[in-house]
Amino acid sequence: MILIAGAGPAGLTLAIDLARRGVPHRLVDPGHPSGSRGKGLQPRTLEVLDDLGVIDAILTAGAPYPPLRAYAGTDVVWEGRMHEPVPPTPDVPYPNVLMVPQWRTEQILRDRLTALGGRVDPVGLASFTQSDDGVSAVLTDGTTVRADYLVGCDGGRSTVRKTLGVPFLGETRDEERMLIGDVQTPDLDRDHWHMWADLQTRTPGVGLCPLPGTSDFQFTAPLAPGDDPDLTLATYRKHLAAGTGRDDIRLTGLGWASVYRVNIRMAERFRVGRVFLAGDAAHVHSPAGGQGLNTGVQDAYNLGWKLAAGSPSLLDTYEEERLPVAAGVLGISTALYQKATEGQADAHKRGEETQQLLLAYPDSPLSSGPSGGTRAPDAPLADGTTLFDAFRGPHFTLLAFNTPAPTCGLTVRTVEITANPAAEAAYGITAPALVLVRPDGYRAHTGDPTSTRTYLTRLNLL
Ligand SMILES: Cc1cc2nc3c(=O)[nH]c(=O)nc-3n(C[C@H](O)[C@H](O)[C@H](O)COP(=O)(O)OP(=O)(O)OC[C@H]3O[C@@H](n4cnc5c(N)ncnc54)[C@H](O)[C@@H]3O)c2cc1C
Fold it and tell me: Which NCBIfam families would you find in this protein's record (predicted)?
């Protein structure tokens, strides 16, 4: 049994992945007010959500990022986009970041978990101990749970990480705080992300971003050092008036409300014995670049199939693969945040570095052959389906390019691809070859039948 502490995006993703594999697990979370906070779903995360069976609900709930509109008082002084939208291609079906309020993403994931027969237990993890053969956890209702593994998806203040004594290295920028919340106003259009910046220094001030599928705007305003406000509608009105110099924008409602302190930290280890850390429990980011939720979802997605297989050497690869990725992503979000605080002219621009499509595990012991560890792209197949259709589900996929597919075990689906220039181009195939794709959509091995057989044997897949 796998015990998961925390049902934010990371914990829910892991629970869904385990539930669809029929792996016994328990997901506990005492509950938290979840607002719009992580509202940007990156292209790679959309691919993960496709595999988990929720992409239609997510696409329906979301919308493209609106253009930014900057004001000086009532005057519009600048308009621009964070992301230039691009059309889908055969290998990248979801090329644009999608805006979905985080509470809605969590609701969709919870619904999927329920449909798979899972649920969130409304209780917290209080403490735990581990030995060579298991984890013994005490929950906040006083009950004890025995588990094979524990996964701490319990956010930046993680009880699991603290109990393990794993250092959370990095910095907290106490002086850089932001008032944030979900507010309502009838006085702004919902087609723009409205912002009031200091034009001299180009530093951001008040922002109001319309949240798709709701009547809310996400409100953000920098807080001066020492300002420790009450989280009431009156406070938000005061900051709006001070930051915009306007009295014609009425705030008529306040939902989720919070103060956000910039934390840039990473756990020194993502695994200690039978206990793993994922999501914000393992790394916290500045909000710039919208990386936090996305990286956590992909931590969980990397871990799910390895926990299901239960092989110690496979489980070792979780930290080997995800720790360098988290470090790289932290570097990207910190650099973007720095640009914004320094008021650089292109600070609002986002490119392919934030989309997470290029994240790869080239140095992983699981990566073998050309392009080992890189994302397995989509491509059209002769029968009108796509490779992503073939990948969807908890199995490995063996792509046989212009060669017969060998017989494999039940956990490998084989797809024969003959004379398909689009797929060959996407995978860089110039001669008959076998490509083994991991359950989490990365290329494990590319080679001939003999080397592939050796690889499959190593992973017990024949
Ligand atoms: C202002 C702001 C803007 C952001 N913008 C973005 C963005 O655009 N894109 C993006 O990707 N990310 C963004 N983020 C970050 C994103 O919100 C987080 O990275 C994300 O919520 C992390 O998910 P998680 O599942 O790891 O943890 P969390 O969402 O923090 O969930 C942790 C869960 O653990 C539970 N828990 C805590 N303690 C225990 C315990 N002892 N036992 C059991 N359960 C426990 C909590 O109740 C909570 O439900 C933003 C964050 C903020 C604050």
Answer: PRK06184.1
